[in-house]
Amino acid sequence: MDALKKGWFSELCPLWPGMCLSLEVEEIIHSEKSKYQDIMVLKTKSHGRVLTLDGIIQCTEADEFSYQEMISFLPLCSHPCPKKVLIIGGGDGGVAREVAKHPDVETIIQCEIDERVVELSRKYLPFMASGFDNPKLTLHIGDGFEFMGKHQKEFDVIITDSSDPVGPAEALFEESYFRLMKAALRDGGIICSQAENIWAGSGLDIASRVYKFCQTEFSSAAYGYCLVPTYPTGQIGFVLGGLNPKTNFKEPLRILSKEEQSQMDLRYYSPEIHRCAFVLPRFAKKVMDGE
Ligand code: SAM
């Protein structure tokens, strides 16, 4: 409860010491300790409803679309025909909502560790949890690392929409997890994982570490990012890896027309922003690519 003082929520995390984002709170809609983490749903003055896990902002009503669209459409539009998609984490439902929009996607399997995140999102965050009602989706409750170990050559795209590497998501940032994802992909498959930011605390170290795993395990790899005001420093990245050495993440294979973008109600993703997402500032490029 240190995070809540005088009507303000402050995001305090050891991954970015000495700094925090604060949001003015109108109402604590729900607060509980689940088997895995502290869960809060807040109503804020500036950003609508907000989901926090262990005191870390996961998504806000005002800007969640940026992250959800980019972690979904960067890999989906880099694949020639993404029919079967696996989502790990994503308990708010936002990534399922986006993935289901892609016309080639026929089946979505999702594995989320904490059923309380799903239940509370259904109750209080229906604008994201609508993803769970899509008939393409089958939801499993369980640990994503264990789930991955039981599947081989099954998925065209694997999206890991995990919380940060403290708590239940820690194993999803290990090299062994990237090896398991590689084995779970069909030929030509692609993975995309949440990979922190390049500015705050240990963000760039974590990003470059998981990027190295992608470079080691996959034939093609890239680090891209999007802008989200309510993530630390307003930026969050993704690592992408592909089994096909010809996959060029920086140039979308599937170009969504302006009509498709409108029909899909995309507010952040476009082919133009896809290309921009991989252009890194020089200091970050040096760490990532040694250039
Ligand atoms: N966009 C968010 C962010 O980075 O702040 C992530 C959103 S989503 C709510 C993260 C989800 O990952 C949570 O619902 C959490 O319960 C789930 N999660 C954490 N560790 C997991 C694991 N080992 N297996 C499956 N799901 C996991």
UniProtKB/TrEMBL annotation:
The active site is at D161. Its EC number is 2.5.1.16. GO terms for cellular component: cytosol. It comes from the Eukaryota. It holds the Pfam family Spermine_synth. PROSITE patterns: PABS_1, PABS_2. Pathway: Amine and polyamine biosynthesis; spermidine biosynthesis; spermidine from putrescine: step 1/1. Residues 6-243 form the PABS domain. It catalyses: S-adenosyl 3-(methylsulfanyl)propylamine + putrescine = S-methyl-5'-thioadenosine + spermidine + H(+). One of its GO terms (molecular function) is spermidine synthase activity. One of its GO terms (biological process) is spermidine biosynthetic process. Keywords: Polyamine biosynthesis, Transferase. Homodimer or homotetramer. Belongs to the spermidine/spermine synthase family. Catalyzes the production of spermidine from putrescine and decarboxylated S-adenosylmethionine (dcSAM). Has a strong preference for putrescine as substrate, and has very low activity towards 1,3-diaminopropane. Has extremely low activity towards spermidine. HAMAP family: Spermidine_synth (MF_00198). This is Spermidine synthase. It comes from Ladona fulva (Scarce chaser dragonfly).
